[in-house]
Amino acid sequence: MRPGPSLSLSEGVEEYLTYLAVDRARSPQTIRAYSTDLASALEFWNGLKRPPHAVSELSRDLVRAYQRHLGGSGLALSSRARRLQALRGLLRYAMRESWLEEDLGLHIDIPRVSAPLPKPLTTDDARTLLDHRSEGSERELRDQALVHFLLSTGCRISEALGVNRSDLSHSGRLVVRGKGSKERMVHLTPAALSAISTYLQARHDREPALFLNYDRRSQAAGARRLTAAGARHIISRLRRERGLEALRSPHVLRHTTATELLTITGNVRLVQEVLGHANLNTMQGYTKVVDQARTEAYREFSRRLATRSGVKESALGSEPGERT
Catalytic residues, which ones? Predict the structure, then answer.
């Protein structure tokens, strides 16, 4: 496909998505999300009385019209922000490729969305999840090995499912491939190594994947590596079986690892390296969770002292900084 002034909107989107997949190494899930969000803009413009047919026909007025359309669409603020972010990326790319004379994305106002605080498991809930002793099937051993792996390393589920048996070492250190194909070193605890070893000893296959899918339809199709959907199903089942309401997704285990490490070490940059976050700002949520926990612990400490000594709680202060 040859870029030029006659490049259609759909062709422009297709080339941009290819750039994200190949040059930026974005994940298939990210590409699908961008494709869906950009399709929304194209659908809106195609419904106009005078729709633009080529990328070069886009203008500030068309971009503003789409923004107004999203504003009255009833979509959640986060959904609107995501669609505008995708469009801004496309427009910036279009200017770089000389399809547009200016960066129309500069005129997009993206609503600010407050990121929800991470919701990790409590320490007791994490212990409940890890202390389960399975003497059952290969599938049950896999489930236990998976939660040990995720809590030990803080990996994203996509990173964990990409690990092969050959990646493991006796030291417990291994390299995983994260976002943008960036590699980083993670560590398995002795308990995680033991759970994984028990699982592997129960297997009698030659599949390279560390975690296998035992669904009959998947096996019949030759898809033995556990998928993200399969992992979410496992976590959902464990939540019901072990009564862990906070265990909503595999990502909760990543939040739990981050929060525990930050509580223990107080070292934000260390936890950033463990999680593989490129931007230190992404750690703010974990920092807030830990700060809240510390504040609550101090308040509880104040209440107990007040109860034992008869001193009013206000005399002790409600924050650590108010102590005399």
Answer: 156, 179, 251, 254, 277, 286
